[in-house]
Structure formats: structure tokens, C-alpha cells
Write a structure and sequence with these properties.
Layout (H helix, E strand, L loop, with lengths): L17 H5 L10 H12 L1 H4 L4 H35 L6 H42 L8 H18 L1 H26 L25 H13 L18 H31 L1 H4 L5 H8 L3 H35 L17 H18 L2 H29 L12 H43 L10 H15 L1
Helix pairs in contact: 2-7, 2-9, 2-12, 4-8, 4-9, 4-14, 4-15, 5-6, 5-12, 5-13, 5-14, 5-15, 5-16, 6-13, 7-9, 7-12, 8-15, 9-11, 11-12, 12-13, 14-15
């Protein structure tokens, strides 16, 4: 959307001049649907290599399988709604922009801040996994973890500052390497699959069974780990303003990505436990590598071990991108300090990248526990999921005639199911790690206090997301 060429009064908010937006513009046409698909896969692919398997340790294989299906349905139904909304409102604000139009500024702020927290914490969590992975490989044994984490933040943030096209093409290349590692794991484990291995955990509670050794409560405990196999894919629309044809490319890219992730998640869930045993898989720090070693595929394990590092780097790289774009959109509209949305000669929000990179590095070094950080990110993500599903439902009801480049099959029925599941997921985060969820809730509350006390009085009325909302308000008044 092109902002007005001059500052004019728009309600009680301030309207900025064209010069303001020229200093806050992204590179148009740098991204096609293939790069969007790879971005969506890259967000998540590190979750295929580690972390998800602890769901087996909490709920047994069947408990984790149910969690995967339930959370997979939540993501699939939500992504259909997001694809529709992003085709109608292709702005860098993405979820914040959808909620802003559907629920007003408070809903937009809550959604945008939740997404920002998720994507700021994710690189911090993943960086700790990268440092541990590098040391486990026997590389740079004498280099402390904080130095390895700092190196990756500096290099990958620097690449993002250099240019979005270059960054996303590199993400594509790294993601391809990670996918090759996943395929190597699949072909190595297929000969060793035995369905009996899926149920080798003895009942551990009174209502436990061979199928559900930790009982029905184990399913709830496994839900957050089902999220790990899809976490952050909803960030694809954050690249909308840099897409060549967002109305067409956004739905293609995000739906192709969710399709790939459903397949990869299914494969690792069945083959890891089916080859090495559910009890073994549920406690393995590096489940794919450890499973291959357990069945005697040592050469493949070595390859997957090294290539698997690419999966972590891909997810780190892509979440750095998304945090900067969410901060850019919120800042441009005045929800965050406006200097964060200034772009340089390469049309990238370099200040947002640098500052959020520093925050992510500080979190990684201070907390030093990737699992806690990731649980914090999961809570923020689930809050944003509830808000985005609700946005789709409200927009379908309030604006049935809105021009949409794609209409989600199933309409609000599916996003209503996803809304309910996202609320269940929020509850499950407190079951797994109430400390992490509580900390994130405090941060989110602090940002909302900032919104009410300051930024709500300094919003930019002609920012793209605000103008989309103004169009709906004007149409409502005409009706």
C-alpha cells in the first residue's frame, strides 16, 4: 500500500509525510513463492532434529502422536486462515495487521507484541542449541559457548542487513542441506522399523497403559512438543511487502511449507521411535543421530550429525528475519519507538536487526537454557495463534466482501477449531513449564502497559496496517 504523499489529518493519530515512509521502506519484489516456502520450512526444520522427542518422554509414543495430529490440525487450519488474510492485506505487519483490522488497536498491539516476543526469543534459544551442537561435534572445544553464540549472531544478522534477497536465498540453500540430512535419516531407518518399538514404554501411572504409559494427562504434557514440529511457520506473511506478487505468492508459499512440515514431522515421529524404540527416543538429546547409532548406521549418523547443524542455522537465520520485520511494522505504525523502522541503503531495517540481535544474544547468555527459552517462545506464539484465528473469524463475519486473493476452504469452521486448540495449547504451556510461561506473560504485560501509557498516543494513522483498518471503518460507516 502506498502511503499518502503528504501529511494530512487522520483522526486523532498523527499522519506522517512521504519522507517518513521513504526512510522506512523495504525492497519490493525480492521474494517469490519458492523463497517463501523455504522460509516457512526453515523456521521449523530445527525442530525435526531435536526437542520434539521429549513429547514421547512426557506422553509415550501414542501421546506424542496424538499431540502431533492435534497441533498439526491447529497449525494447518490456522495457516489456511493466515493465507487468506495475507492475500487480502499483504503488509509486513502480518498477524498484527490482521488483528488490527479485525479487533482494533488493542487487539493489534497484543498480537504484534506476542509475535515479536516469539521471534526475539527463538533465535536466542536456537543459538544455545547451536553452541551445544558445535561442542558435541568436537569443534572449537576451547571456545566458550557465549563466543560461538556471539559469532552466529554477528554473522547472520550482518547477512540480513546486507539484503533480504541474499539472505533468503542463503536460507534456501541451508534448508536444502538440512532436508538432505532428513532424507538420509529416513532411508537409513526404514529397514530397522518395527511397530512394536513404538510401544516399549511400561505404564508409569495408575491410569497408564502400553498405548499411553503416562495416561491421559501425558497427552496434555506432550502438546507443546507437538508445537515444536511447526513452531514459527506463521511468520511467512512477514515477508509480504518484499514479495513479488503477495496475493498469489503468500498462499502458495505458506501452504507448500505446511505440507512439507507435515510430511517431515510424520517421518521422524514414526521412524525415530520405530527404529530405536520409544523409550530410547524419548530421552535422546539428539534423537535422529542417536537413533541411527543405536541401529548400527554409524556412517549415516555422522553425516546427519554434521548436516543437522544446517537445520539449526536455518531456523536461527529465518527467525532473525521475522523478528526484525515484526519490529519494523510495529515501529513504523508507532506501536514501538519509530527509529526501529528506519531502513538503510539496502532497504533492510538495520537498527531493528542490530537491537533485537543484541537482545537475543543477551537472553541466550543470561538464561543459558535453550529449553526454557523455547518454552517461553511457545507461550507467546500460542497467544498470537488465538488472536490470529479470532481475526480470521471476525473478518469473515464483518467483511464478507473483502477482496481476497485466496479463500480458506472450510471457512471459519476450521479456524474456530484452531482457536479452541490454541487456547488448549496456552494452558499446556503452564503444565510443562509454568515458570517460562509466567515470565513471558510478564513481558507481554509490560509491553501492553507501554502501549496504553505511551505508544497509543503516538500512532501513525497512515501506516499501511492502520490504513487497512481505516478502510474497514469507512466502509462500516457507509453501511
Amino acid at each position: 500500500m502506498t502511503p499518502p504523499s503528504s501529511a494530512i489529518a487522520i483522526g486523532p493519530e498523527r499522519a506522517e509525510s512521504s519522507e517518513y515512509f521513504e526512510k522506512r521502506s523495504l525492497k519490493k519484489g525480492a521474494v517469490n513463492w519458492v523463497l517463501l516456502m523455504s522460509l516457512g520450512v526453515a523456521y521449523v526444520i530445527s525442530g525435526d532434529f531435536s526437542g520434539w522427542n521429549y513429547g514421547i518422554g512426557n506422553g509415550g509414543w501414542m501421546g506424542m502422536a496424538i499431540a502431533f495430529v492435534v497441533m498439526g490440525a491447529m497449525y494447518l487450519f490456522m495457516v489456511l486462515g493466515i493465507a487468506e488474510m495475507s492475500s487480502a492485506m499483504p503488509t509486513a505487519g502480518a498477524g498484527y495487521g490482521f488483528a488490527r483490522r479485525a479487533m482494533g488497536r488493542i487487539g493489534g498491539a497484543l498480537t504484534g507484541f506476542s509475535i515479536l516476543i516469539e521471534y526475539t526469543i527463538c533465535p536466542a534459544a536456537i543459538s544455545t542449541f547451536i553452541a551445544a551442537y558445535v561442542h558435541d561435534l568436537g569443534l572449537f572445544a576451547d571456545v566458550p559457548s557465549y563466543a560461538i553464540i556471539g559469532f552466529f549472531f554477528v554473522v547472520l544478522v550482518g547477512i540480513h542487513i546486507f539484503g533480504v534477497g541474499e539472505a533468503l536465498k542463503l536460507i534456501l540453500g541451508i534448508t536444502v542441506v538440512a532436508m538432505i540430512a532428513l532424507l538420509a535419516f529416513v532411508f537409513g531407518m526404514i529397514p530397522h522399523f518395527d511397530a512394536a518399538n513404538l510401544f516399549d514404554i511400561a505404564p508409569a501411572v495408575a491410569d497408564g497403559s502400553t498405548m499411553l504409559p503416562y495416561g491421559a494427562s501425558g497427552i496434555l504434557a506432550a502438546l507443546p512438543f507437538g508445537i515444536w514440529l511447526f513452531l514459527a511457520i506463521e511468520g511467512v506473511p512477514l515477508a509480504a511487502e518484499e514479495s513479488a506478487n503477495p496475493k498469489r505468492d503468500m498462499p502458495r508459499g505458506i501452504l507448500a511449507a505446511i505440507g512439507v512440515l507435515i510430511v517431515t514431522g510424520t517421518l521422524v515421529l514414526f521412524l525415530c521411535a520405530g527404529g530405536a524404540g520409544a523409550e530410547f527416543a524419548g530421552a535422546a538429546p539428539a534423537p535422529l543421530v542417536d537413533a541411527l547409532n543405536a541401529v548400527g548406521e554409524n556412517n549415516l549418523a555422522l553425516f546427519v550429525n554434521y548436516a543437522g547443524l544446517a537445520g539449526l542455522i536455518a531456523s536461527f537465520f529465518s527467525t532473525v528475519f521475522s523478528s526484525s520485520r515484526q519490529a519494523f511494522a510495529l515501529s513504523r505504525a508507532g506501536y514501538l519507538p519509530k527509529f526501529l523502522s528506519v531502513t538503510g541503503n539496502r532497504k533492510t531495517p538495520y537498527l531493528a536487526l542490530i537491537i533485537l540481535g543484541f537482545i537475543g544474544y543477551a537472553l541466550a547468555v543470561f538464561v543459558q537454557d535453550g529449553d526454557v527459552l523455547l518454552n517461553m517462545a511457545v507461550f507467546a506464539a500460542c497467544v498470537s495463534y488465538a488472536m490470529m484465528n479470532l481475526s480470521h473469524i471476525l473478518l469473515r463475519k464483518k467483511e464478507p466482501d473483502m477482496e481476497r486473493g485466496f479463500k480458506a476452504p472450510g471457512g471459519i469452521v476450521l479456524t474456530s477449531i484452531s482457536l479452541v486448540l490454541s487456547i488448549v495449547a496456552i494452558v499446556s504451556t503452564f503444565v510443562v513449564d509454568s515458570f517460562a510461561a509466567g515470565c513471558t506473560l510478564l513481558v507481554l504485560a509490560g509491553l501492553m502497559v507501554y502501549f496504553f501509557l505511551y505508544s497509543s498516543k503516538h500512532l501513525v494513522g497512515n501506516a499501511p496496517e492502520e490504513e487497512f483498518a481505516a478502510m474497514e471503518q469507512a466502509a462500516a460507516e457507509l453501511r
